Amino acid sequence: MAKQVFNPDALKQNISELKEKIQVLESNFKEKMQEKTREIKRNAERKIEDNPLQSVGIAFGAGLVLGALAVALMRKK
How many C-beta atoms surround the C-beta of residue 23 within 10 A? Predict the structure, then answer.
């Protein structure tokens, strides 16, 4: 079995290559997440446009629940 010699230049090259691969993966991930976010936004907007009264009702109900929760928490103090 041959003894391996530490080669700093090869190590720097490997690190540089890994850094480039990570940057590409990060960019691809970012693009996919942005597209997914746009898709979710489009779907939400479409549902709101298709059912405006239901959307208002849901928002009103959520506001009531959050308001009641806030009042309850304020009374505890």
Answer: 10
